[in-house]
Design brief:
Length: 276
């Protein structure tokens, strides 16, 4: 068998379709070149030191978009290599593609949304999002779905169209500290000034509360005279948005402890019933 005969030797023959050794080698070369090209692009785009995590996340999104584009080109070249004309394939499969488009409409919507997310960079890896009341950190953005790590440690696989069609709060877009609030009610017999001072002391002792910037210093105020209690509200600023519920819980524990030490009562709901 000559060298030419070896390269033309058919490996697969199904009807009019055949795959010989030379075509197989060419396919392997295309795949190898694609891997090498993506490796070089990743080293240039992603591995380059960035000034901040937001720039690094944007670079990662750009790399993912380029990665999908390069693989699409590689797949088209592989199809052409085995003798299938892509234009003919698309034209002859128009009816099938319409049917698939109707049946897989949601999947196509997710893919298009993924392309928009990667291109625009509005959502990036390590961003902290609030989606329908669920707070989590983006761990991976793929073409159809994205992975969200919640504060409970669970992984959610979220279709990309939800980031486009629904209201999403991106905490990471807010580079400034964010304001949060904690409310507590005390009995009407309590000394309001003493309660205010205790609440200020509680938030001053928490390391995650910003207390050293006058323009965003914590605020304690009375917001309502309820049926059973005088309602106080603490407004405070923090950088730690991902674990903010834990910070609020810590502050509530501190309030309970200091109220108990000072004899301040958090009342139960009360009703006065007049009998005739």
């Amino acid at each position: 068998m000559t060298h030419s005969d070896f390269l033309d030797y058919p490996l697969i023959e199904i009807g009019n379709f055949s795959l010989n050794v030379s075509e197989l080698f060419l396919i392997l070369i295309i795949i190898l070149i694609t891997w090498i090209l993506l490796f070089i692009i990743k080293r240039i785009v992603v591995s380059t030191p960035s000034k901040d995590k937001y720039t690094a996340a944007r670079k990662h999104s750009v790399y993912l978009l380029v990665k999908y584009l390069v693989w699409i080109i590689a797949i088209v070249l592989i199809i052409e290599t085995i003798g299938v004309k892509v234009t003919f394939l698309i034209a002859s499969s128009a009816a099938l593609l319409v049917g698939l488009g109707l049946g897989l409409q949601q999947i196509f919507q997710d893919i298009v949304s993924g392309v928009f997310i990667l291109f625009e960079g509005t959502i990036k890896v390590d961003d902290i999002l609030d989606i329908g009341g669920v707070v989590g950190k983006i761990k991976e953005i793929r073409l159809r779905t994205s992975t969200l790590l919640t504060r409970d440690g669970t992984i959610l696989i979220i279709p990309n169209h939800k980031f486009i069609n629904e209201n999403v709060i991106n905490w990471s877009h807010n580079l400034q500290p964010t304001r949060f609030r904690v409310q507590v009610g005390v009995s009407y017999g309590s000394d309001e000034i003493q309660v205010r001072d205790i609440l200020y002391k509680c938030i001053a002792e928490h390391p995650e509360v910003i207390n050293d910037q006058p323009e965003i210093k914590p605020i304690v105020r009375i917001i309502d005279f309820g049926d059973s209690a005088v309602v106080f509200e603490i407004l405070f600023w923090s950088h730690n948005m991902f674990w903010i519920e834990n910070i609020k819980s810590d502050i509530r524990f501190m309030i309970r402890e200091k109220f108990r030490e000072n004899g301040i009562v958090i009342p139960f709901p009360q009703r006065d019933v007049h009998m005739k």
